[in-house]
Amino acid sequence: MQDKKNTVFPSSEVPIQVQFYDTDSLGIIYYGSYYRYFEAGFLRFLKSRGLTFTEVHNQGIYLPATFSSCRYYAPSKVEQRLLVRTNLCKASRASIDFTHEVRNEDLDGRLVAAGETRHACVGSDWKVRALPDWLISKLTS
User: Within 10 Å of residue 26's Cβ, how many Cβ atoms?
Assistant: First the structure.
């Protein structure tokens, strides 16, 4: 599909304000909360491409996460403003890969976490299937 070295893929951004429920007993963002931020970035990415999760789902296409990773660089606290930047980095036959950067806007855009997610393409029977051409076109244009 599309994984050429020099291909520039689209990206999107979503602002997040840290909520109390995102934090742990130390008063900083609980590590698992970043995966929720990655999901918010993924959904915003779809919307930026003229798609909604429901619309894709109604076409019988499910995009479950099959891989995720996150590196943590600095703490953030409740009420701080974050910006999640999500980049499509690879679209292969039956999966799409994203990178995510989380920056703290209240700390001059400091990088606080970065990670990756891979989403497989499966049908309503949960069997792997090829990404449809129309979806690849929307995601990569």
Answer: 9
- In this structure, the chain runs to a length of 141
pLDDT tens profile 104-131: 999 999 999 999 999 999 999 999 999 9
Global pTM reads 0.92
- The Cα–Cα gap between 92 and 109 comes to 32
Residues 28, 84, 133, CA angle at the centre, nearest 5°? 140
Q: CA 57, CA 103: separation in Å to the nearest integer? A: 30
Q: Bridge-partner residues for 87, per DSSP? A: 11, 99
Q: Which CATH number fits domain 11-140: 1.20.1250.20, 3.40.1440.60, 3.10.129.10, 1.10.3720.10?
A: 3.10.129.10
Asked if 138 contacts 9 with a C-beta cutoff of 8 angstroms, the reply is no
Which of 117, 55, 61, 112 is CA-nearest to residue 86? Answer: 117
φ, ψ for residue 9 (rounded to 5)?
-95, 160
Query: Please, are residues 87 and 11 in contact by the beta-carbon 8 Å criterion?
Result: yes
DSSP 21: G
